[in-house]
Predict the 3D structure of the following.
Amino acid sequence: MAQATTEQKSQKVSPATPQYRPPQGFARFVKQWDIQLMVWPGILLVFVFSYLPMYGVFTAFMDYSVFTGSKIWDNPWVGWKHFEMFFNAPEFANVMRNTIVISLLKLLFGFPAPIFLALMLNEVRKMMFKRVVQTITYLPHFMSWVILAGLATSLLAVDNGSINMLLEKLGLIDEPINFLSEKSYFWSILISVNVWKEIGFNSIVFLAAIAGIDPHLYEAAQIDGASRFKQIYLITLPMIMPVVIIFFILAIGNMMSAGFEDILLLATNPLLRPISDVIDTYVYRVGLGNQRYSYAAAVGLFKAVISVGLLTMANYMARRSGNSLW
């Protein structure tokens, strides 16, 4: 009888230990107060400067005037008037062509340039040389466009410009060329200066992605006899492709932003306006310069809608590879 009682006690299942449940709601917020303290200033900054001003989009459908008072709703509604004016403007076709062409050129040359730089820097074994190259290529990003445009103007100047002097010494030209007044050179100059400014800083992300690749993959490839070029093609590029696709989607979404400061500072000659006037400079010159605020808002809204459409389309195409934003 005692033995049976002992067996029954041994067969009793010990009470299950309660599973840990992470705190929810306000308790979770309090527990992560240090992390929340770092996040919320950024959220408030974006909300105040990016979301609160969005009510100004309604001015695109009004005849807005700064003299009507503080209430934006006191302005008369005009519907699609300003959009129709923009579509029927004589500069519309030229502005859209310049925006699309300059954006495509920046995407064609400016997007792969940081990837190539990151691949080349990854192959450098002399750390001192690698750091020097990184410092030199990162530096232009932290300079304002005013400084870089001034440097480019000095290099391309007709009088004592380094580029003209070099070409004359090499016998390639007989007399100096006014590069910043010739339409045939402007797009090349604009894209070159943009690549010069951003190639180093944009390569940081791709260098970080390359640093996260498992080194055992390269060791296995070396044992199999793969050359450095094959290792780049078969290991490095496929492993960083998710990062490349994400940044490519973002670049597609920004295609309608062909530039503002760079074009405004490099295209100072009015003769370049037929090939340099893009949506941003057109809004600044016609909309804000002439105090046509509703017209400027309409053009800006048109640009934003097209950008969202391009972003959605690029994300849909990238979703097939499994590397989309949403």
Remarks:
- The mean pLDDT is 87.
- Residues 183-211 form the longest helix (29 residues).
